[in-house]
Amino acid sequence: MGTALCPGSFDPVTNGHMDVIERACELFERVHVTVFVHADKSPLFGVEERLAMLREATAHLPGVVVAQASGLLVDYARRHGIRVCVRGLRAVSDFEYELAMAEMNKRLYGDLETMFMMTRPAYSYLSSTLVREVARWGGDVAGLVPAGVAERLARKYGGQP
Ligand code: ADP
Prior knowledge:
Blueprint: E1 3-8, H1 15-27, E2 30-37, H2 47-57, E3 64-70, H3 73-79, E4 84-89, H4 95-108, E5 113-118, H5 128-136, H6 147-156
Parallel strand pairs: 1-2, 1-4, 2-3, 4-5
The protein binds adenosine-5'-diphosphate.
């Protein structure tokens, strides 16, 4: 039990993210779902929109705290007394990047453990990037993202939800 951190860009939140968040909620009393803002990424959705979509999608999960942060993940974790970071692992291709991040975070904050959850096979090729690309050209993203996200994508790209 205790508190875990599920960090990400969530641009936008997908059902793959939701799977990890929901499973984290079964293991931890409180789960901080935190949007980290990177100065060098140019997101499709502004941070307020990403937070709103996350709040909507996690409304049924009483342990979830939706928040935003910039700067180092370890500083956020320290500030909130969080010692577990939960990340999702899709394909082998995620592994190297995730390993580097986990090692760096451990070096910066020795008390922080990174835990990995294997993605449900149905979502193992699902990413925010692919969802944005499909939606941009009018493809159907129903079933891949929460309903509210599909609506916002359709509005953003001028189509019907
Ligand atoms: P980041 O920019 O930090 O990679 P993302 O929003 O892309 O942020 O991802 C946040 C977390 O969600 C990461 O741990 C990532 O591995 C995980 N994740 C992304 N897509 C999926 C998915 N389809 N299934 C499970 N986990 C996922």
